[in-house]
Amino acid sequence: MRPGRLAAAALLIGALGGCVLPEPVTEAERLDVALKDLDAITRAQAPVEGRINLYGAMARALRYNLDRRIRLVEQFYASGEFDLAKYKLLPDASIGGGYLGRSNQAGSSSQSLLTGRQSLEPSTSLERNRGVADARVLWSTLDFGVSYVKMQQDGNAVWLAREVERKTTARILADTRRAYWRAYAAERIGAQLPAIAEAANAAIRAAHQAQARGDLTPEVALDYERRMLRTLREIERRQELMALSRAELAALISVDPATPLRLGSHETLTPPKLPGDAEGLRTVALMYRPELYEHDYKLRIAGLERQIEILSTMPGLRIDTGYSYDTNRYLYNNNWLDLGARLSLQLTQFISLPARLEQNETKQVLIETQRKAMTLSVITQVHLAMRAYGTKLRDFALANRILQNEGRALTTMRANKEATTAGEAALIEARAAHALASLDYYYTYAELQEAYATVLTSLGIDNFDGEREGDLPALTASLRDFVERGLTERLARHLAEAREARRTITTGSVGVREESNSAPAPEAAALARRREASASVTVAE
Q: Residue 477, exposed/middle/buried by CB under 10 A (0-12, 13-18, 19+)?
């Protein structure tokens, strides 16, 4: 090896030996990024001012919840992938130019194949320094066909991302309902609990003092202490639940848990109502649940993957054309057009096609089986959600009766209170029982709202369409109108469509899913019929 090449090799080895790992992220850098992220989250939100009612909390959850924003970004990314896929249908086009040079003259001679003698003295047809330029267009029928099918896959991925976002939105709205009413109960009743706990501790101390004076027997004093400790334990448990409820609400609306939240002052605790029967609601769920549409789009994508496997096996025609220019003065023509075509077949792809098609078929069977399981699960969820809703409706009515009973007992106890240790302890117990009954009343209403939201989620229709319109106050007003009126109207309309679909299911003449849900659906009756059949097959299996 020449000395120059040895030196170059030594330099290369030295450079490779000097490669080291990059510096790790330091604690200061990590903290700086985290603080910037928190600051960006805070600056992106409207400040929390005044009291927040249910619709304000739901508006903030829709606008600022980070889980939902992730789904929206995923949806936007899927749309971008679909837009980029269109460019892959175009032929590859390139324009280039440059300078070529060498240290000596390029030359050659010829040797006779018959005599072995040199038949031409050394000569050249290439300049030492020259400029070149070209413009080329390459197009392949195989690449075009595969790219077209992949574009269709990306299009279905857009609808799939929208269904995932719709499912996330429904879950966030349901969680916000539950967390808001629990936090509301904590705000309304929570202030009373510390005072009652202090009074219970004072009653325990008074019982000990009365026992020391001989006014109470040890058995009676112990019984007082046991009752007060049970009251304290229940109060402590409820205070922890209230703290968790406020933290959960803060997380849902993307607010720092340390930020004080003041909730609506006078909320009306009216039980929500659901029209329709279980059979009609089941059909609505089969027509609108996003999880079922997810499997439909996954099955479409898998079917298109089968087309790609077949296309990639077919012969491909590759056409290459272009214009070239060269400054070489020895050329007779310094610029020219050229055209080439090549037909090729990938033998490995051809041989492996049966195995790849079998694997794709297995994938489709897997998706179909998952869809059948999800179809049966959807029907089960609707029935369970309806039963839970009915149970919570009765629990709420019972909690209301218990609260009224505890209120009358507290009023009677205050009127007939004895100025004794036993009388004071009984009053404290009555106060605690009334406060806990009030808390149970609000908590039961929160559970009723959660059950109502679970029913809507199981149907796949609790989805607000105007979350991108206007500022936060306008969004709050739109949500109020939607929840108090529009949601009931939508549910009634879907139930009417479901009943019509069941009546005309043999002919399939039924409208498609409404456009506001953001995804083109097959005919609702045909889709419901297929899913009913899938559920039946799953049960039979």
A: middle
